[in-house]
Amino acid sequence: SRGQGQLEHATVSRRIASLEKSLNVKLVDRRKRLYELTDDGRKLAVIGRRIEEQAEAIGRLAVAAQDAPATEVTISAPSSVAIEKLVPQLGAFRAMHPGIVLRLLGDHQYSSLSSCQSDLCIRFSRPVENGIVARRIGTASFSFYCSSFYLEQRLAEHYEFIGYDSEVMTASQNAELKAIVGTRPFVLEAKTVELQIRAAEAGVGIALLPDFAVEQNPRLCRLELSRPLEVGVWLGVHEDLRSVASIQAAMNYVESCYR
Question: Which residues form the HTH lysR-type domain (predicted)?
Answer without folding.
Answer: 10-38
